[in-house]
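ARCHIVE CARD
SHELF: 3
SLOT: left
DATA:
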Amino acid sequence: MDIQFSARHFNASAGLQDRIQEEMDKLAKFYPNITGASVVLDHEVEHQRHCDITVNITGNVITASADEENMGKAVDVALERVKTQLKKANEKQNDHRSQPASSLA
């Protein structure tokens, strides 16, 4: 999966980027057709960290964000929100495909 990282107002460590890469790779089990993703990490004010995650899937875009006191927690919360949305999109796609044509009429 192609992931673009951006860090605003600070330098993201290689360890943080590697951790995010590993977690983003795990998202494929919730929705197999992920075409790309972007992660924006922001150190806005003194005690607040912001994480925006955008995931491109076939025919749709999923976004999630989180504001927390540390960057690790913000990333975790945003990833959980993305996982929830991917599960819902996958269920919606599978439910739509599983209906026989005769029941749609």
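SLOT: right
DATA:
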Amino acid sequence: MTSSPKRWNKEYGLVVRPFTIDTWDFTNDPASQTDRRIHENEPMCAMHGDNSGVYEAMNILAFFNDKLGEHDKAEEWRSRAAELKNNMFKHLWNGKFFIHQLHINHDGIDDKENERLSLSNGYDINRGVTDISQSRSIIEEYMARRKTTTAFAEWFSIDPPYADFKGYAPGKYVNGSISPFTAGEIALAAFKNGYEEYGWDIISRFIDIAERDKSVAFLYFPGDGAPQNGSGPSGWGSAALLNAVDEGLCGVVDKDCLYREIDFSPRLVVTGYKELRFITGYELSHKFVDVRFIIKDVGMRYNVYSDAEKINFHIFLPKGKTCRALIVDGEQTPFEAVRVGDSAYVDFSYAPSSRVSAEILF
């Protein structure tokens, strides 16, 4: 992506693509149907989602090079990632969220690109491009548009849609439909950036949709919320929603390989349930994480069963509660009180055996 003269713009220091809707695979050119090549003098754009994807890939390469002892190479990838991020904010950030497309050699088809909120904004947060202030700004934009949209939900593929894009009217296919993959990414971002109740609200609304339809569709019509059957793979959105539950609501994140180190950030108190159990893992590797949760008036407890050598706890507290004492495996343990936005967390790290019990007393 960064070495191809067709896909890399040296002037902006950004990845570019033909003029599409966000990450999609067709252009507005009526003569182009399934031809996905880049042609000479084709209208080109810089789209934030491509660049956040390359940013994440660079950091993954840094991770693996560090694992292999190639620390100089790892630092080079981190440096390149930082430069790419700077260019994203220089050219694609409008102060509240990432604009849809920066037109490179053409004027586009209308004057709304700077106000268009496209689906990759959620990915940008979860790929680590944004800090907490920028992440919250994007999430707040979705929350604000929920109040003003005529659509049944704010999980837009793009908003506002184009008057017409390749024959697709507003609300048809990716031109303004409502997508579960957007919902999943925004829910995950909300859980991690101090909007835990909003994250659970998104998951709860999709539970209702799934129970209504007995499935999760690829896209939905914005007006009545009916599924756009046959429009694409439903697994994409389902996976995003499950990931929001896995890493966001239940807070299990593999920081190494095979859960040797876990970031554990459970937010189960937002559900209103008093007792829960959650299991996740890698079936083929026979590595699992089993979480048991219970909350009472005097406090709450998480029991975590795993093979982890280290667990970094970041436990969300109920509204209005503070941690009076932390008991880990029967021993009073020091902790750090942390705030994420307006949300309170208890932070500590622990090297467990096969089971760790963390009890927070209010």
